[in-house]
Design the sequence.
């Protein structure tokens, strides 16, 4: 993938809300370009990131290097990262990457239960620097990740453990960030908008007003609006709707509560507006979403947290 060099980032990375979800231990998804999360960001979940098309520059911690198709990187919790593709700003790419995310609690529990996974702690610890695997490993991982994207339930877990085994047996990956680099989420969270994003995630159903959050963040309302869009790639209202609708998807999948109950529980105060927003993002009503999911239509999963399409 080419050589890289250490760097010092002057801007604080943005907090990304992953939301693995109550209905699954893992989150697997893909995205193209343009896309709001293509920015310098961090999150407390592990991530396996596979580039499927385009080439460009990799940013991981204090590292800058190059990437191309089948670039495969394992990232530890809170490691700042970004991939910038060398395409014109107006270019539209149907799929740029496949992204698999999982929590430390989940993987720690797996290691505790299954002695066969004893190789994982060392590999996951090394991922604090970002681990880049050889291109051939990325090529071999691609059908496994696609299989995970296309299925749910036990089959998805089976493919996940197959992927971990393959990474364990692959040629040794290359650490990206320098040995001196340490993720510092406590410092990242001092950035006012990261704190605001965390507050939205913790209280999505409360009466969140943009003007109030602007005042808490030390911004004027117009300054907050501009800064929030730069940070997240979308407006405050669309971001909040995305989080609330993502929670609604979880409730529709995991329980039998009536759609009206779910509407008010996730923070909408008008059923007609809830149905309209849900249909705009998912192309169907909440009831249809629940029905199709229960028919095990594997193509229906919640969108990345806070980023409705």
Sequence:
């Amino acid at each position: 993938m080419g050589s890289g060099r250490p760097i010092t980032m002057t801007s604080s990375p943005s907090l990304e809300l992953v939301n693995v979800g109550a209905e699954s231990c893992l989150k697997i998804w893909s995205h193209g370009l343009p896309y709001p999360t293509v920015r310098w960001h961090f999150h407390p979940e592990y991530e396996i990131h596979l580039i499927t098309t385009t080439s460009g520059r990799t940013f991981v911690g204090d590292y800058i290097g190059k990437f191309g198709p089948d670039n495969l990187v394992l990232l530890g919790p809170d490691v700042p990262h970004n991939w910038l593709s060398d395409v014109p700003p107006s270019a539209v790419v149907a799929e740029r990457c496949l992204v698999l995310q999982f929590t430390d609690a989940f993987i720690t529990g797996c290691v505790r239960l299954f002695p066969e996974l004893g190789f994982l702690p060392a590999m996951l610890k090394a991922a604090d620097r970002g681990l880049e695997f050889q291109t051939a490993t990325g090529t071999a991982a691609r059908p496994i990740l696609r299989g995970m994207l296309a299925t749910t339930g036990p089959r998805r877990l089976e493919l996940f453990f197959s992927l971990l085994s393959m990474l364990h047996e692959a040629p040794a990956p290359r650490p990206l960030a320098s040995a001196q680099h340490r993720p510092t989420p406590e410092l990242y969270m001092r950035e006012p908008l990261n704190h605001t994003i965390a507050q939205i995630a913790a209280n999505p159903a409360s009466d969140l007003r943009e003007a109030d959050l602007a005042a808490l963040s030390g911004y004027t309302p117009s300054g907050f609006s501009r800064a929030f869009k730069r940070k997240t790639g979308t407006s405050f209202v669309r971001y909040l709707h995305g989080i609330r609708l993502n929670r609604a998807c979880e409730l529709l999948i995991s329980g039998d509560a009536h759609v009206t109950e779910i509407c008010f529980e996730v923070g909408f105060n008008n059923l007609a507006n809830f149905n309209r927003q849900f249909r705009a993002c998912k192309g169907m009503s909440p009831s249809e979403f629940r029905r199709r999911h229960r028919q095990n239509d594997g193509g229906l999963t919640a969108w990345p947290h806070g980023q409705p399409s």
About this structure: Confidence is low (pLDDT under 50) at residues 1-10, 297-309. The chain has two domains: 5-175, 191-294. The CA atoms of residues 86 and 265 lie 43 Å apart. The two ends are 31 Å apart (CA to CA).
